TrEMBL record:
<feature type="binding site">
    <location>
        <position position="212"/>
    </location>
    <ligand>
        <name>NAD(+)</name>
    </ligand>
</feature>
<dbReference type="InterPro" id="IPR036291">
    <property type="entry name" value="NAD(P)-bd_dom_sf"/>
</dbReference>
<feature type="binding site">
    <location>
        <position position="258"/>
    </location>
    <ligand>
        <name>NAD(+)</name>
    </ligand>
</feature>
<feature type="active site" description="Proton donor">
    <location>
        <position position="96"/>
    </location>
</feature>
<comment type="similarity">
    <text>Belongs to the AlaDH/PNT family.</text>
</comment>
<dbReference type="GO" id="GO:0019878">
    <property type="term" value="P:lysine biosynthetic process via aminoadipic acid"/>
</dbReference>
<dbReference type="Pfam" id="PF05222">
    <property type="entry name" value="AlaDh_PNT_N"/>
</dbReference>
<feature type="domain" description="Alanine dehydrogenase/pyridine nucleotide transhydrogenase N-terminal">
    <location>
        <begin position="8"/>
        <end position="142"/>
    </location>
</feature>
<protein>
    <submittedName>
        <fullName>Saccharopine dehydrogenase</fullName>
    </submittedName>
</protein>
<dbReference type="InterPro" id="IPR051168">
    <property type="entry name" value="AASS"/>
</dbReference>
<dbReference type="InterPro" id="IPR027281">
    <property type="entry name" value="Lys1"/>
</dbReference>
<feature type="binding site">
    <location>
        <begin position="187"/>
        <end position="188"/>
    </location>
    <ligand>
        <name>NAD(+)</name>
    </ligand>
</feature>
<dbReference type="GO" id="GO:0004754">
    <property type="term" value="F:saccharopine dehydrogenase (NAD+, L-lysine-forming) activity"/>
</dbReference>
<dbReference type="GO" id="GO:0005737">
    <property type="term" value="C:cytoplasm"/>
</dbReference>
<keyword id="KW-0560">Oxidoreductase</keyword>
<feature type="active site" description="Proton acceptor">
    <location>
        <position position="78"/>
    </location>
</feature>
<dbReference type="InterPro" id="IPR007886">
    <property type="entry name" value="AlaDH/PNT_N"/>
</dbReference>
Length: 346
């Protein structure tokens, strides 16, 4: 039976955003279940529109979602374009609007004006509150890869998006004597970081909550590379301090902060004040000797758009299948929105 609720995959407004939350193969699975899928054309998406058409999706011009039938659920990753247009539909994307972020109140006002609902992907959680879809693995993979390539003098700026075979070829092109430490190693990003370091042939120490409870600072500084992938929910002992930067007995020369909690009270790396970007991914924190270089790119999965989209889409697919029938996971998501919205309307 064909569902009256369709998925409308819109184009992304953010420049250089090549990722998508729904890849063509998974769109075909939704269609097979009777869920109509409409896909907007996009100049940037890592998957060609012809692949969606071949899967049976209806193709429409970019940025036409404001005219979608009211029963459609509009799907994307970041805030939709046409900033002044009130949001009338149910929208699924990462809103970054509930924790006082810049632009959050304005986004919620668009929903208030249009009467629509934000189903924020960050708040798609199981009964235990764990997120069910995230880009973490590939963030860690790329974050560690950039650290290795920089340490080997092989990182070129500006960064550009790649495929995994291209990135792995770079990682395998040279072996070195460096040793790495991944903190948060048991998490999604941490596992991705460890995998990239294995591909690069870099011996890796893995720390998680147990190993940082009583921080062995000398052991930490005795690694060449540090990849921070912790998901910090409370302030705690910093992994690095400005005093550590001054130490001349330090082996550590490259830090890749996947967490990028730089403006948060929970930040465990209070040695820098702003993230780096694709144009200039590396910032020198200490001239040395020994030098200390920082990589803190906050959109790492975009550097591997096909792989990160494929993994994300696979995780989201069962929930998109369930969307026409509602269900607890989407109700919890909507509750977060209804809880946040009144604050924005004041
Ligand atoms: N830079 C980017 O592009 C990017 C992309 C995605 C996610 N992230 C960020 O990466 C971080 C990790 O995300 P994730 O999905 O891997 O989270 P996760 O919850 O899967 O993993 C986090 C890990 O950190 C560990 N941890 C928490 N506190 C710790 C401590 N004090 N010491 C050691 N380990 C500790 C946890 O036990 C867990 O294993 C988040 O802050 C997320 O926002 C960044």
């Amino acid at each position: 039976m064909v569902s009256s609720t369709g998925i409308w995959l819109r184009s992304e407004a953010a420049p250089n955003e090549q990722r998508t939350p729904l890849v063509p193969g998974d769109a075909a699975k939704l269609l097979a279940e009777g869920i109509p899928v409409t896909v907007e054309e996009s100049a940037h998406r890592a998957f060609p529109i012809d692949d969606y058409a071949a899967a049976g999706c209806r193709v429409v011009p970019a940025d036409t979602w404001p005219d979608a039938p009211p029963t459609e659920v509009v799907l994307g990753l970041k805030e939709p374009s046409s900033a002044s247009v009130p949001l009338t539909h149910r929208h699924v994307f990462f809103g970054h609007a509930y924790k006082g972020q810049e632009g959050g109140p304005a986004l919620l006002r668009r929903f208030a004006l249009g009467g629509g609902t934000l189903l924020d992907l960050e708040y798609l959680t199981d009964e235990a509150g764990r997120r069910v879809v995230a880009f973490g693995f590939w963030a860690g993979y790329v974050g560690a890869a950039l650290a290795v390539l920089h340490h080997r003098g092989r990182l070129t700026a500006p960064l550009r998006s790649l495929t995994r075979p291209e990135l792995d070829a770079e990682l395998r092109a040279e072996q070195g004597a460096a040793r790495a430490l991944v903190i948060g190693a048991l998490g999604r990003s941490g596992r991705g970081a460890c995998e990239a370091l294995a591909v690069a042939g870099v011996p890796t120490t893995r720390w998680d909550v147990e190993e940082t409870r009583d921080l062995d600072r000398a052991a930490l500084l005795d690694h060449d590379l540090l990849v921070n992938t912790v998901f910090a929910v409370e302030p705690g002992t910093p992994f690095l301090t400005t005093a550590d930067l001054e130490r001349d007995d330090r082996t550590l020369t490259v830090v890749s902060d996947v967490t990028c909690d730089v403006t948060s009270a929970c930040n465990r790396l209070p040695v820098y004040d702003r993230v780096t970007d694709w144009a200039e991914p590396v910032r020198r924190l200490h001239p040395g000797p020994p030098r200390l270089d920082l990589i803190a790119v906050d959109n790492l999965p975009s550097l591997l758009p096909r792989e990160s989209s494929t993994a994300f889409s696979a995780g989201l697919l069962p929930h998109l299948s369930a969307l026409p029938h509602g269900g607890a996971i989407w109700s919890r998501c909507a509750e977060h929105f209804h809880h946040a919205r009144p604050a924005a309307e004041k």
